Amino acid sequence: MTTPLGPGALAELDTVGTPPAPRRRVKRDKREKERVSGGAPMTRGERVRLVFGHIFIYIAALIFISPLIYAFFSALKPNQEIFAMPPTLVGSEIRWSNFADVFAYGPFLTYIGNSFFVSIAGTLVVLAVSTMAGYAFGRLRWKGRDAVFVLFLATLMVPAEVLVIPMFTVMQWFGWVDTYQALIFPFAFTAFGTFLMRQFFRGIPFELEEAARVDGAGPVRSFLQIVLPLSKSAVAVLAVFTFLSFWNSYLWPLIVTVDYAAHGTLPIGLATFSGITGTRWDLQMAAAIISMIPTTILVIALQKHLVKGISMAGLGGR
């Protein structure tokens, strides 16, 4: 005759009768992750293709970076060994003092400071103008919007060299020749930045902005609190491209600047550097290496945002 078990006895029996779960091993975890992620073990042919693909990428990267490596080691050579035949990567002695001697030949530190000021100020102006213009073209609805955008975009087909004389005449009218304003504002209203931000803004769901407007937010508040925070990657891409454009600009600063020692930028300083130092190519190489350091750090720091922004900037199509 069986005796019925109570609730407590059933719970105890379930606890005692249930075997402990076995510990997961490392290999099992790896297989489980592959199964969950949908991955499958690679075949031998796939491994071979992967290895050869990596080797090809490394060789291509080495080919592209080899001129920079040679320039760096040339900056450490004595001047008379730079054009020695046959060429050598490392000179008879390593002169780190070449980098310090750069600042003794002309106002090279002033050139760097001017380039930083012009590049940062110009980037901030371009970001402000391009984001607001991109929002107006991409998110707001107004009569003649598409026609105006096409005309604005057509300015990209005009070479910058064609605009040099008209821009210089305008700078004379404003009295801005040989000033920082002339180095910053003529290129602050570019169609490239507006086009980039417009394409990115059009990829953001309109429902987010409509929900904000239901809550009483206007276009300005929607732009500042909803659209702009979602566009950090695109803004980072535009910031890097704009900074590099101002940093490497040579023709316009050469024309609009009169006193190079006071308002000259780094490309102007590099151009006049050879005249000041004569045949000191070792110092010329050292100055070029120094000029590449800020832009290299900027690109490395914003690398993730650059990849994400470039991949997403062209997805808008509404």
Summarize the structure in words.
- The chain is 68% helix and 0% strand.
- The protein is mainly α and 318 residues long.
- The longest helix is centred in the N-terminal third of the chain and has 31 residues, at 44-74.
- The radius of gyration is 30 Å and the shape is flat.
Task: Give the key terms.
17 helices; flat; mainly alpha
Bulk shape = flat
Our count of helices gives 17
Tell me the strand percentage band: under 5%
Distance between the termini: 77 Å
Q: Give the oligomer, counting copies of the same chain as homo and different chains as hetero.
A: single chain
Unreliable spans are 1-24, 32-37, 314-318
Number of strands: 0
> Helical proportion?
55-70%
How would you sum up the major sheet?
A: none
What's the SSE blueprint?
Blueprint: H1 7-17, H2 26-37, H3 44-74, H4 97-101, H5 108-138, H6 145-154, H7 164-174, H8 180-184, H9 191-202, H10 206-214, H11 219-227, H12 232-248, H13 251-256, H14 260-263, H15 266-277, H16 281-301, H17 303-313
Helix pairs in contact: 3-16, 5-9, 5-12, 5-15, 9-12, 10-11, 12-17, 15-16
Give a short synopsis of this structure.
The protein is an all-alpha fold and 318 residues long.
